[in-house]
Specification:
The protein is of the alpha/beta class. It has two domains: about 170 residues, Rossmann fold (3-Layer(aba) Sandwich), CATH 3.40.50.720; about 160 residues, Dihydrodipicolinate Reductase, domain 2. It has 13 helices and 13 strands. The strands form two sheets. Strands 4-3-2-1-5-6-7 form a seven-stranded mixed beta sheet, sandwiched between helices. A hairpin with a 2-residue loop joins β10 and β11. The chain starts with a strand and ends with a helix.
Length: about 350
């Protein structure tokens, strides 16, 4: 299988490392062989070699120079669109940055790849949250797959569980913790910490961005809620359709009041069927201690699907991380391999 990587930041480099480290396992266990034939990154440059690129050399160049244009051999200078259109690749892995307002540049990348008859794997929430129904139709029309496991809960297989694992079931709704930053903050506020101090610590540890509003105001969880509702429940929601409230108004007295009731406050992503419609919201909720979600602490994520056949099905796992996302992309790649 030949792969073109669009984006070679944290996610792209971790996927490349995972692919290289597991090359023998993948061949022996799955009969799977894969070459990265092109990498195109807006900041780090691009290189293409139809015979396959030397992954350790690419990673060395990134570590030492933060560029890949010093790679010996191959064709340089192809931008992302030319890479997608001109490179002979079976799969385009789109791991550019996330933009929940426009979905760009990932949205254009994905459309170009699907129209070119290439399978697409993405970790980019923006395009999937904003345009999943359109992108799914485009993939079907061109006889290729669109896979996006890493857009929700990183490498924890929540999308595969909802679509494949629960195939034949009606998913009536879901409730979950889909943002590790807010869960980390709420967990430590319950231990007596102050919101501002905990947020600063989360930023220092890399759990929260320097500008944290996407997390603490609930936008990140909204994007993931839309992706799950549309892909698993057949909805056609957009982020603006989701009722949203973040955690910035939660004070220590609210945490203590919840404790006295034997409950915990969690930022809950919730979708449910209302007649023929699917509705969704993201907001802080009081969660009973008997609820599996109550015991999920720190940066861990969790989600409970409500189904007609199995009742409640809960999955708990890491919701972020470069290595975890790299493994999630590999999982999608193997799914495409099996189908081919």
């Amino acid at each position: 299988m030949k792969v073109a990587l669009i984006g070679f930041g944290t996610v792209g480099t971790n996927f490349a490392r995972v692919l290289h480290e597991k090359r023998r396992l993948l061949k022996d266990k799955y009969g799977f062989e894969c070459e990265i034939v092109a990498v195109s990154d807006l900041l780090r440059g691009s290189v293409h070699d139809p015979k396959g690129l030397d992954i350790p050399e690419l990673l060395r160049l990134v570590k030492e120079t933060n560029k890949i244009e010093g790679y010996k051999g191959g064709t340089k200078g192809l931008d992302s669109i030319r890479t997608i259109r001109e490179v002979d690749a079976d799969v385009v892995i789109e791991v550019a940055w996330t933009n929940l307002e426009t979905g760009e540049p990932g949205l254009t990348h994905i459309k170009e790849a699907l129209r070119a008859g290439r399978h697409v794997i993405t970790s980019n929430k923006g395009p999937i949250a904003l345009a999943y129904p359109e992108l799914k139709r485009l993939a079907d029309e061109n006889g290729v797959q669109l896979r996006f496991e890493c857009t929700v809960m990183s490498g924890t297989p929540i999308i595969m569980l909802g679509i494949d694992g629960l195939a034949g079931h009606i998913v009536d709704g879901f409730r979950g913790i889909l943002n590790g930053t807010t869960n980390y903050i709420l967990t430590n506020m319950e231990k007596g910490g102050a919101y501002a101090d905990i947020l600063n610590e989360a930023q220092r540890l890399g759990y929260a961005e320097v500008e944290p509003s996407a997390d603490v105001e609930g936008w990140d969880a909204v994007g993931k809620t839309v992706i799950l509702a549309n892909s698993v429940m057949g909805a056609e929601l957009r982020p603006g359709d989701v009722e949203r409230e973040g955690i910035t108004k939660i004070a220590p007295r609210d945490i203590e009041a919840a404790k006295r009731q034997g409950k915990r406050i969690k930022l809950i992503a919730h979708a449910w069927r209302d007649g023929s419609m699917v509705k969704a919201k993201v907001s802080p909720e009081l969660v009973e201690l008997s609820d599996p979600l109550a015991s999920v602490s720190g940066t861990t994520n969790a989600l409970t699907f409500e189904t007609d056949g199995l009742g409640a099905v809960t999955i708990i796992g890491k919701g972020a991380g470069g290595v975890e996302t790299g493994h999630g992309i590999l999982t999608d790649l193997l799914a495409i391999h099996r189908s081919m």
